[in-house]
Amino acid sequence: MKFQKRTPEIAVPEHQKAQRRQTPWGEMSYLEYKHRVEFGQAEYEKIAAHAADRGIAWFASPWDVPSVDFLNSMDVPVHKVASASITDLEPAARRARQRPPGAAVDRHVGACRRSTSPSKRSAPSAW
């Protein structure tokens, strides 16, 4: 299962924070709305337990440094870099310091590259 993790104060642009929005909870600022929809510790603990009970992995895309730290505290197996965050160097540097890529990651990246090459269009049978 894959999720997104953001810190609303960082993720919401300053000019949008106070904008009023109609939401399922009534009218509120965009920042308030983002706080309502962003999962916190309790929700991620439920996700972790649900995944563990079923023997499946869960992970998330951290969009900022506090989210990187939060996901590391939850001991997720991987961080998926959000496409919109690919050039955001601060979270990337934090991930690199806390979770340096290893041989297993390199092997998986290599398998992905090989499976998407023009000569091979099927996924590898084993990673």
TrEMBL record:
Composition bias, Polar residues: 114-127
Enumerate the SUPFAM superfamilies for this protein: Aldolase (SSF51569)
Instruction: Tell me the ranges covered by the PseI/NeuA/B-like domain, including all copies.
Output: 2-90
Specify residue ranges for compositional bias: Basic and acidic residues. Answer: 1-17
Q: For the region Disordered, what residue ranges are annotated?
A: 1-23, 91-127
> Which InterPro entries does the record cross-reference, listed alphabetically?
Aldolase_TIM (IPR013785), PseI-like (IPR051690), PseI/NeuA/B-like_N (IPR013132)
Return the protein name: PseI/NeuA/B-like domain-containing protein
